From TrEMBL:
Pfam families: YdjM. The chain crosses the membrane at residues 103-123, 135-153, 159-188, 209-228. InterPro entries: YdjM-like. Signal peptide: none annotated. This is Metal-dependent hydrolase. The keyword S-adenosyl-L-methionine does not apply. GO terms for molecular function: hydrolase activity. It comes from Streptomonospora halophila. Keywords: Hydrolase, Membrane, Transmembrane, Transmembrane helix.
Length: 237
């Protein structure tokens, strides 16, 4: 799937699991998900849902932070055997989630930096990016990312769940690519068998543009009305 579809799927995925996670403990992580955590988790998942494509030179995430992400792309492409190989495996999702969770345990400041980077990736995937290397759009993206990151920080968002959110975002990416005809090698390096190969739609086809993307957008709107306590948010008259 295209970057915007992956980013949208990350938002939908997180919002969809909130009712099942809130107030529960999963893998030793307690989930107390207020409005701030819902917004933060949605954007973190949206950014994480683009991470597996860091193995592709032309992907959204590779071109988000210029030379930095392009260099990472080259490294990931070499380490994981090219596009849609190792970075599209369950092993990769676990590795990314574990590294992120370790980061959260090591330093709160490091987590805020990582959240900032993920939000920038998410906004770029959603269309608020530096298309055609436009300085203006890059500045707008950076300002929006900084403002949202700061707002989440000042609201006291608890990121103890961030490792699971990143792993989940990567997994959502795999599900999206399994719906396309190229499939993904989920069990790499044990096997290169591609789940979903030659079954789904073509990336950026009419199916994705006219069905998948609109459906994900509608799902976000519906889940927003379902999850947020709108009467409590409105000012009293």
């Amino acid at each position: 799937m295209m970057g915007h579809s992956h980013a949208l799927s990350g938002i939908v995925g997180w919002m969809a699991v909130v009712p099942f996670l809130d107030g529960r403990e999963v893998l030793g992580v307690s989930f107390d998900l207020g409005p701030g955590e819902i917004v933060a988790g949605s954007l973190v998942c949206a950014g994480a849902a683009l991470i597996p494509d860091l193995d592709a030179k032309s992907s959204t995430i590779t071109n988000t932070y210029g030379a930095f992400t392009r260099a990472l792309s080259g490294i990931f492409n070499w380490m994981f055997g090219g596009h849609r190989n190792g970075t599209h495996s369950l092993l990769f999702a676990v590795l990314m989630g574990s590294v992120t969770q370790g980061l959260a345990l090591w330093s709160e400041f490091a987590v805020q930096i990582f959240v900032f980077l993920l939000l920038g990736i998410a906004f770029n995937g959603l269309g608020l990016g530096s298309e055609k290397n436009s300085i203006a759009s890059a500045v707008i993206n950076a300002m929006a990312t900084g403002a949202v990151t700061l707002a989440l920080f000042t609201s006291g968002v608890d990121y103890s769940w961030i490792g699971l959110a990143v792993a989940f975002g990567c997994f959502l990416h795999f599900l999206g690519d399994m719906a396309t005809e190229l499939g993904v090698p989920l069990l790499w390096p044990a096997t290169k068998y591609r789940f979903g190969e030659k079954i789904g739609f073509t990336t950026d086809s009419k199916v994705e543009r006219n069905l998948v993307t609109p459906s994900l957008t509608i799902a976000i709107v519906l889940l927003t009305f379902y999850l947020f306590p709108w009467p409590e948010l409105l000012p009293e008259v």
